[in-house]
Design a protein that fits this description.
alpha+beta; Pnp Oxidase, Chain A; 7-stranded antiparallel β-sheet; about 30% strand
């Protein structure tokens, strides 16, 4: 088993610790927004270490929509490269943990539908897209059969 390396961002590391340490009963929302998050566990592409990232909870049936917004920054978040390199992840949604496989959405109609779901769940995504020249990647995590 690989080593877990917490995020260098203190609030991210603290949220993951609270969420997982409570068995999925605390730390379930993004900071002071009251909006729900999930924890995505994946392998780091450079380190091979276990990485854990809280992302907005955007559900689409049994699937989860993952938006690589980075707050509208010019570059994709680091976790995006990790998921492209190794699409096998675990997603913790409250007390449940699911083994899933991630794929980037390339079909324009599917992307548009999932983007609308994401913006409905977390309205700032629309502003983030306006702030950056890049098209914010939309990924979908699907249960492993």
């Amino acid at each position: 088993m690989s080593e877990y390396i917490p995020s260098p961002s203190a609030w991210v590391a603290e949220q993951v610790e609270l969420y997982e340490g409570s068995g999925g009963t605390e730390g379930l929302t993004l900071r002071d927004t009251g909006l729900p998050v999930i924890i995505v566990t994946n392998r780091g592409v450079k380190t091979g270490a276990i990485r854990k990232t809280p992302l907005m909870r955007v559900a689409d049936g049994q699937n989860y929509v993952l938006v690589a917004s980075q707050g509208g920054a010019p570059k994709n978040p680091l976790w995006y490269a990790n998921l492209k390199a190794d699409p096998n992840v675990e997603i913790r949604d409250k007390t449940e943990v699911y083994k899933m496989r991630v794929r980037e959405v390339s079909d324009p109609a599917e992307r548009q539908r999932l983007w609308a779901l994401a913006v409905e769940a977390f309205p700032p995504y629309a502003e983030y897209q306006k702030k950056t020249a890049r098209t914010i990647p939309v990924l979908v995590a699907e249960p492993v059969a």
